[in-house]
Structures are given as structure tokens and as C-alpha cells.
Design a protein that fits this description.
Length: 697
């Protein structure tokens, strides 16, 4: 079915890509705008894939004519809440060894606001400053300034725009007097007003608007008005709108037979698999895993599965294993085959089977935003072969700030200074079909995808990918790389999300820029961003793109930071080598000279979280405490409970040992170390203590 999918929800200033699903590169498909708000002058371009840019709030309706019929796409546009924001830097902010006299009057500026794209925004010199102003929504924003398109000398600025966060909504369904009643629990943003609810049906279903009644935050449908299957969507609307939530109603047993009971089964397609919240992820940078003297191959990794198993982890995330000329593997030259130096497809599948035998799921690093410029498709594209003309993004030469002599009158699109990995063009049906084939190639081999540069791929495509993989395997995992965080990717797209707020905060605590209590602000940011309560978040201190926490902060603070990722709500991730004392970002695994004590510490944390449901439950309660000795700003205490058990966690990010008197009575054994603590109401904390709380009955 070529129907473009569920209703879309955006703010003014955001473009929505409109595209047929299940594309055939040879198909004929056309769009036309059939309805728009009275004050709108929005139009649609030609071609099977085009963008709609709403210019006034309201509802827009676009019609797709495709080989299988005519389909309607609803786009609801909400007012944008923005503020004129000023980024600025001075000459002293650039690392130029004191030489600032030759700096240009203009500087390139990139940030999330322009998808980190060079040449699109420029800062102008104003005296001793380089300044740019742009419209941004509430939140904290960063900008990177560069003069030559490289990152050899850059400066950054950070600004905070005050204003409300995003609302949230959660749908539930129940049967009442043979009616389906869908209730929306709409929650205000932490700094916003009470929202109202808007319900939407899905154009792919036979549920008619006339069959439903809506009363505030409740939608009702008589059983007789329900088709075999239907999707119901809702958004909460105040100053800003929420991520949409969805219920699927099934009135058939899957074989076309109506269910015979009075109840109407409902499911929540946007929820992550239940196992994701209980899992611990282990990221392997594949080409450094075997160590210094042994070439990393699939066979070499397979021989080390007993070690991975000994850690107690549930999921292995492998960095790219496809053909690539680079050590890291993100410059892919063949999406359908494994890298020759790593081994054959059969050897990769053997590794996956061995991990499965150990009870460990495998997450595949899916790279579909770009290819290597060494990929034959890009070479043919730049050589002017007509069949490949629209495979890659193209930008005007005026926006190209690279020093590359590109063939032709324009240049390939890319993010940052990543000129070796040009962006694929998702306005092309050929590319969409190509990348869906890549998804299909690997989804039956592994248990999930970690999606590289997820923010660079259109939302509509990710929605199609989700429905595609979940139709066959609802337990399949989708993990997004969105840096910084963006709750829009939780709208029927991804199951688990990078928590960049906690990552940054853990480093700021160690450097003294923030007190240890800033952990709670980082957790609160999840709601401020508008993530639904049911979403899962990956908590981590290291990954292959970042400098190692150990190298920057030391071993004791690392233990406290890792302790936080395992004792706060979320899905903890360990980057291979973190537990062995590797200090280099992509350094080789220290098999013979690694830190065994640190490794054992990680094993005990993994086991502790697995053994205590309180550490996997939602919710954190800060615990008042007095720091009798040590730096109070480096100490934080909180409780975790599942109703049956309450645990007290005390973290110390400083050097040496802190003496802490928590308000919560404690006593007994530190569950992590096995030492007795709390006999006098105080606890000695080197890095982390986890102890049962004494709760008065």
C-alpha cells in the first residue's frame, strides 16, 4: 500500500516530507494540496516526494495519486513558540595561539537549528564579536563557529531560551457498554499551561468520522462502528503541542473473523519492547575489540563471547560491519555485504548465533543517512550518469565551504565537515527503495538497529521503517542517535533514545561546573523535552564518538558516573573498554593489562540491577542528607522503589571518601560491595553505595 502513513503534526517553520510508502522507482505518483487554512498560501512541488511547509496554523490535506489508488495525508500545523536568539563569540574564543589578526569578517555557524549544515548560516563581525541571530524554541541551544569549514579552530556559544516545554499525552482504551472508550491523559509541560486534546483518525483505516463522538479528552466509538482494525491518534495542545500517541484497535482475530467477546482489544504501537527497559547494552567498536596484536574478525569476537557473557549484559551493539574503507566503518561502500577484513556474511551470522546461544540480543548499526563517497553509486552520480542523478543531496556551490573541487556546477550535501560521507537524497524514490532493501537485508539477522545520524533521515521514512520491522517482529528494537535529544523521534519511530542531558551532566559534575544534584535536573529534562513516560532512554558515560570519561575525569569519578547510569531509570549502556580501563576514545581492548577491579565493578553493577526490580522501576526520590566530610557538591543521594523494596543510593564524584548522613535510616550491607554500612546513621562513600532503606511500618 502506497498510503503515506499516519497524520503528521508540526509547528510553523517546519517542513513535512510527503512520500508514498513501499515505493517502486518506476511508479507514477503525484501530490496535490486539496485543503489548507484560509490565510495560507502554501503550495506543493512536483514529483512523488515533496515538502509541505505550513505557513499558518491549521489543518492541511494533501492527496496522493498512486498506482493503488488515491490517498489522503493530514498535516496539522501548530503555532511556533520561538524567540530571537543571539549567538556570539570573540576572537579570544578561537584557539589561534594568540594570532587573531587574520580572522575573516564572516564565520560559518552550525547547530541543531540548521541540522549542522555548513554554509547555510553566517555570523557577521561586530567589533570584537562575531554575531548571528536566529529564531529558536524554548530550551538550551548550542552553536559552533568556524572560519574555513574545518574544525581545526572553532568556538562555541550556548544560549537558553526561556519558555514552556512540550506537553505530553497518553492514550488508554477500554470497553464500556460495548463501546470503545479512548481516554487521553494530557499533561502540562513543567512550565506550561493545561493542555487540550485533539483526536485524529488514520486515513489508512475504514473508521469513519461520523462513527465517533468526542467529549473533551474522551473519544467513544460503538462496537458496530469499528472496522477490523483502526488507529486512533491524539495530541495534547497548549503553548506547544505534544508528541502524538497512538492506539491500535483490533476487532478481528487476524484472519478476518470478528472477535466474539464484548471487549475490544487495543495495543500501543509506539511503546518499546518490554525487555528494553530491563536490558543492559554493551557497545563494541568492532575493529579494536580483539586487542593490539590480533586482527579483529567476526571469529575473533565470537571467541570472546564467554567474556561478554560473564559481564551479564543482555544486548550487544556492534558498530558497522559492512564494507567500508575506514576503521570505524561509517563510510559504507556496500550496504549488502560484510567488510572483507572482518569476515564473511556466514561468519557474521555465526557470531550472531553464538551471542543468541548466550542469551544476548544483537543490535546492528544501521547507517542510511549517507554513504562513502567511494561508493559506486556516488561515483556514478558525480560522473553524471542519468540513472544516479538524484541519489544524493545537492547544494548550490555558494553554500559549499569545502576546499574540494567537486565535479559539476554544484556540490554534494553533507553535515558538519563530513565531506567523505555525502547525504543520500530521500526525495528520490530510488533511494527510499534502496534503503528499505537495506533494512530488509539485515532485520531478519539481528534483533534491532542502532540508527546512525537518525536526525538526518526524514521522520516519515522512520515511521515506515518502524511499521515495517514491527509487523513481523514486535520485539525488534530501534535505537536512535539524536544529538542533542529530540522527542519528535519518539512519535511512532524509535524505542530507545540517547540521553545526552545525563551524559553532559555527569561530566559537568566531575569538572565542578554543576553540583551532583544536577542529576535530577537532567532527569527532569526528559519531561521538559516532551518525551512520553513510556519511552526508554539510554544512559551512558562513554561511546565511540566521545572522549573517554576515565581519561578526562579519573577512575573514582568514573565509578560514580557508571553507578548513576545503572541506578537511575533507563537502559544502561557500557562501551567496551570502559570496564577495562581503556582511556582512548576508540582504543584497543586491554585484555592482558586491563583493570580487573573495574571490570568486576561493572559485573556487580549489571548483576545488582538485574537482581533488584527497584532499580528498573520508574521514578526517583531525592533524599536529603548531610555531608559530614568531603565536598558536599560532589555528593548526591536518592531512593528507588518498586513498592516491595526501597533502595538508597549515595554517589560521590570527588576524590577520597565522603562521610554522609542521609535522612533515610539505613543499616545493613552495601549491596554492591558487600560491606556493612550505616551502623551509626552515616555511610562512608568512595564512589557509590547501594543499601536497603529502613522503612518504618
Amino acid at each position: 500500500m502506497h498510503h503515506p502513513g499516519p497524520p503528521r503534526f508540526v509547528t510553523i517553520g517546519e517542513a513535512v516530507e510527503l512520500a508514498p510508502r513501499q515505493p517502486d522507482p518506476d511508479m507514477t505518483a503525484e501530490w496535490r494540496l486539496i485543503d489548507r487554512p484560509a490565510a495560507s498560501t502554501a503550495t506543493l512541488g512536483d514529483g512523488p516526494v515533496c515538502d509541505l511547509e505550513p505557513d499558518v496554523p491549521g489543518t492541511y490535506r494533501a492527496e496522493l495519486t498512486a498506482p493503488d489508488g488515491t490517498h489522503e495525508q493530514v498535516v496539522r500545523a501548530f503555532p511556533a513558540v520561538t524567540e530571537t536568539t543571539r549567538f556570539s563569540v570573540t576572537a579570544e574564543d578561537f584557539d589561534r595561539d594568540g594570532d587573531t589578526g587574520d580572522l575573516d569578517d564572516r564565520a560559518i555557524v552550525i547547530g541543531k537549528f540548521n541540522d549542522f549544515t555548513m554554509g547555510r548560516h553566517w555570523a557577521e563581525r561586530d567589533g570584537d564579536e562575531w554575531v548571528i541571530e536566529t529564531e529558536l524554541p524554548p530550551g538550551t541551544h548550542h552553536a559552533i563557529f568556524s572560519f574555513d569549514g574545518s574544525f581545526e579552530s572553532t568556538a562555541t556559544d550556548e544560549v537558553t531560551v526561556n519558555g514552556p516545554g512540550r506537553t505530553r499525552v497518553e492514550l488508554t482504551g477500554e470497553t464500556e457498554d460495548r463501546d470503545l472508550v479512548v481516554s487521553a491523559d494530557a499533561r502540562a509541560a513543567p512550565s506550561g499551561s493545561e493542555p487540550e486534546v485533539e483526536f485524529y483518525l488514520d486515513g489508512r483505516d475504514a473508521l469513519d468520522e461520523s462513527a465517533i463522538t468526542v467529549d473533551g479528552d474522551e473519544l467513544r466509538v460503538p462496537r458496530e462502528g469499528l472496522p477490523e482494525s483502526a488507529r486512533i491518534h491524539a495530541v495534547a495542545v497548549a503553548e506547544r503541542h505534544s508528541v502524538a500517541d497512538t492506539l491500535v484497535v483490533e476487532c478481528s482475530d487476524g484472519n478476518g473473523n470478528a472477535t466474539t467477546d464484548d471487549g475490544v482489544p487495543v495495543t500501543r504501537p509506539a511503546d518499546p519492547p518490554a525487555w528494553a527497559g530491563d536490558a543492559t547494552i554493551y557497545e563494541i567498536f568492532v575493529r579494536s575489540f580483539a586487542g593490539e596484536t590480533v586482527d579483529t574478525t567476526f571469529e575473533a569476537i565470537e571467541r570472546r563471547v564467554p567474556y561478554i557473557e560473564s559481564l551479564g549484559v543482555d544486548v550487544v551493539w556492534l558498530t558497522p560491519i559492512q564494507a567500508s574503507p575506514t576503521r570505524h566503518g561509517y563510510h559504507i561502500t556496500d550496504f549488502f555485504d560484510t567488510a572483507e577484513d572482518l569476515g564473511t556474511r556466514r561468519e557474521f551470522e555465526s557470531l550472531v548465533d553464538r551471542l543468541h546461544e548466550a542469551g544476548i540480543r544483537v543490535v546492528f548499526d544501521l547507517v542510511i543517512n549517507h554513504s562513502s563517497r567511494d561508493h559506486p553509486a556516488f561515483q556514478l552520480h558525480r560522473a553524471g550518469v542519468p540513472e544516479y542523478a538524484d541519489y544524493y543531496e545537492r547544494i548550490p556551490v555558494s553554500q559549499d565551504v569545502s576546499d574540494i573541487d567537486w565535479a559539476g556546477e554544484d556540490a554534494p550535501g553533507h553535515y558538519f565537515n563530513w565531506t567523505r560521507i555525502p547525504n543520500l537524497n530521500y526525495d528520490s524514490l530510488e533511494v527510499r527503495r534502496w534503503m528499505l532493501d537495506v533494512v530488509d537485508e539485515w532485520r531478519d539477522v539481528v534483533d534491532g538497529f542502532r540508527c546512525d545520524v537518525a536526525w538526518g533521515v526524514p521522520h516519515g521514512f522512520w515511521k515506515e521503517v518502524r511499521e515495517r520491522v514491527k509487523a513481523d517482529d514486535p520485539e525488534f528494537l530501534l535505537l536512535d542517535e539524536t544529538v542533542p535529544r529530540d522527542a519528535a523521534f519518539a512519535e511512532n519511530e524509535f524505542d530507545v533514545h540517547y540521553d545526552t542531558d545525563l551524559f553532559d551532566t555527569l561530566r559537568d559534575i566531575r569538572t565542578g561546573e554543576e553540583p551532583a544534584s544536577a542529576l535530577f535536573e537532567a532527569l527532569d529534562a526528559t519531561a521538559e523535552h516532551g518525551y512520553p513516560d513510556r519511552t526508554a532512554h539510554m544512559r551512558y558515560v562513554d561511546n565511540h564518538d566521545e572522549d573517554r570519561y576515565l581519561g578526562e575525569c579519573g577512575v573514582a569519578p568514573l565509578r560514580a558516573a557508571v553507578g548513576a547510569t545503572f541506578t537511575l531509570p533507563g537502559t544502561p549502556m557500557v562501551y567496551a573498554g570502559q570496564e577495562r580501563g581503556v582511556e582512548q576514545q576508540r582504543g584497543t581492548m586491554r585484555w592482558h593489562d586491563g583493570d580487573n577491579a573495574l571490570t568486576d565493578f561493572h559485573r556487580r553493577l549489571v548483576a545488582l540491577r538485574a537482581d533488584h526490580a527497584a532499580l528498573r522501576a520508574p521514578g526517583v526520590r531525592p533524599v536529603p542528607h548531610t555531608v559530614e566530610s568531603g565536598d558536599a557538591n560532589r555528593v548526591v543521594a536518592y531512593e528507588r522503589t518498586d513498592g516491595d523494596e526501597t533502595l538508597l543510593i549515595v554517589l560521590h564524584f570527588g576524590e577520597g571518601t565522603a562521610t554522609v548522613s542521609p535522612e533515610t535510616p539505613i543499616g545493613g550491607t552495601d549491596l554492591l560491595s558487600g560491606d556493612q554500612v550505616g551502623s551509626d546513621g552515616t555511610v562512608e562513600v568512595g564512589d557509590i553505595v547501594v543499601v536497603p532503606a529502613v522503612i518504618d511500618s
